[in-house]
Structure formats: structure tokens, C-alpha cells
Amino acid sequence: MWRYEALLPIDRPEGVARAAGGTPLVRSPGLDDAAGARVFVKDEGENPTGAYKDRGSAVAVPHTVATGGDVVGTVSYGNMAISTAAHAASLDRECVVFVPEQTSSVRLELIAQYEPTIVQVAGDYGKLYGDALELSKHLPIDVLVSDVPTRISGYKTALFEIYESLAPAAPDVIALPASSGGFASGIWLGIRDLKRAGLIAEPPRLYLIQTATADPLTRAFEAGETEPTPLSPDETGDTIAHSIGNPDPPSGARALAAVRDTDGAVVSVTDDEIRTAQRRFAVDGGFCVEPASATTLAGVSRLAERGDIAADESVVLVPTGTGFKEMGTSEMEVATETVHRDALRDRLESLLAS
């Protein structure tokens, strides 16, 4: 991502930030039928900690250090917590991560490997975003929440890479999972940068995909509102796409503006659709993606069915995180059989003939 250093608010830093970005854009014809269009996959799971969050942390954490911050923190129980902790560790800075009380042991282990201070917080976790900003005012800690400007500036580099990879062609559609709205804000910032530079005339349509159990952006978009209304606990439910189950997205207004500015849309998908899409990503595309990332394929499939996306259009799906972090947390049954080595040839002949 540092090939775009001139468009970022810091000089190229040391540490793991240098490994962020530069993820591949892969033509994936095996996913065309599921998507109803020509599919390209921008695999953000190949970032250092397996998620697009590294683009934001690669700018936000070194920027904080450069401006005198000794302790960084974040509010997250997923990819942003892991990423912030890793980037702080690589610069020998302390990190404090605030996670929900019920965070799984698998997630805690992934975060803990970088040895941050992990604080499990009881109570309304949704309100911790505001609490964290207050903590930054009163304590010597810089809490890098999801929509700090330095994070947003790092996210736009994914858009630059998509255009550079496809040149001289251009994407018709970019599909992202949507939670806080921060990644959408960054992609939109990149689009506007390219338009100001005279490098693109028409922007790609930006489609944001939410989980149906927590979809304030979808509701606001369909109601014609410019800002999402936070959902109450009674209006939200459990989802396998837990990393995007955000009932009160802090960058929601910007995300909605980005969608409307590019003639895109926001749609929601069910857990069943997400499971199907996650399997299609693996079986038809060869990609291991987390459930939140699988929403992109599920959402584009729905949009194609209703005529919003044409079969000859180029669609960039952006899996924002690897599915390898989720191993051991699903209820998937693995079918295997045991065959003695003496019978292996006969059994394989039987399988291949069937």
C-alpha cells in the first residue's frame, strides 16, 4: 500500500505496517454463476493479520506513535483488535483492547498472542465507542476507533489497488460487508481522490451488505434516510457474521452518502444465505472467507436476481477477512472415512468410478 505513500498522512513507517496491502485481485469465473456477473475477488485476507483492518492500522498506529502517543487502544472483539495489537507490538508500543464480556476463547487467543492488555467489558458494549473516546480525553491512551481519519485514509488504498489491477478496464460494482461504515468511507474517499485527479469519470456502484439480524444501514437506505437509526437490543439478534453485527454504526451517515453518490444500494442477507455463500467461495472459488466476508457474494446474488446487476458487468467482491481465524468455531460436520492402506487402491478406484 505504500506505493501510494504520497496520498497518505504519514511517511512509510517501520514494522509490520510495511506488509499491509498489496493484496491480489483474482478473476474467479467459478463464482460467476452464484453472483450472476463476472466476478473478481479482492482477497483482503492476505493482509498480515488476515483482514483489511491492517490497512487502517498501518497508518493509524504509526501516526499515533509519531505524534507522541505511547499507548494505543481500540474497541473490538475481532479483526480490528487483532490488527491494532499486532501493529502496536511491531512498534514496541503498549496496546489496550476493550472486548465484550462474552468474547469467545478463540478470539481472545488470537488477540492475546500479541500480548496487549485485554479488558473484557460488561454492560452495553454498543455504548463503549463513546466511552472510549472519553477515555482518550482523560487518560494517556489513544483509542483508535473504527472511523478515525487515519484509519479511513489507509482503507482507500484498497480502491487504488483495484483500479491499478484492472487497468485499463474499470469495475462496474464493488461489494463490501458493512458494519461501522468505516471501510465504505475509505473506499468512497479513494473514489473521490481518483475523480479529483481526473483518473475516472464514472465511479463504480458501491453495494454494502449487512446481516439481517443487525441492519440499520439497510433500513435507513430503504427508508430514504441520510442517517441510520440505532437498533435496540430487542431489534437485533445473533448471527454467524458476528463481526458486522453492529446496531449503531458510527460512520453510517458517510456509508449511506457513499452508496447514494455512486448509485449503489444497501441490502441485507440471512445467515442461511451467508452459509451458502461461504461454501460457494470455498468450493467454487477456492477462497476461505469468514462469514462476514461471505455476505458479499450472498448480497450480489440477490442484487443480480432483482436486476440491479447485469450478467456482463464486472463485480469486485471484497472478502474483508480470512476464514482461517474461524476454524473450530463452527458446527460444520466433516465427513471422513478410514481405509487400511492395503485396501486404498480398491477404495479409490471405487470412489473415482462413482
UniProtKB/TrEMBL annotation:
Domain of life per record: Archaea
Alphabetical list of Pfam families matching this protein: PALP
Example GO molecular function: L-serine ammonia-lyase activity
Keyword Transmembrane helix (UniProt): no
Domain Tryptophan synthase beta chain-like PALP: 18-321
GO process annotations (BP): isoleucine biosynthetic process; L-serine catabolic process; L-threonine catabolic process
Keyword Metal-binding belongs to the record: no
Signal peptide: none
InterPro entries linked: Ser/Thr_Dehydratase (IPR050147), TrpB-like_PALP (IPR001926), TrpB-like_PALP_sf (IPR036052)
Keywords: Lyase, Pyridoxal phosphate
Name of the featured protein: Threonine synthase
Organism phylogeny: Archaea, Methanobacteriati, Methanobacteriota, Stenosarchaea group, Halobacteria
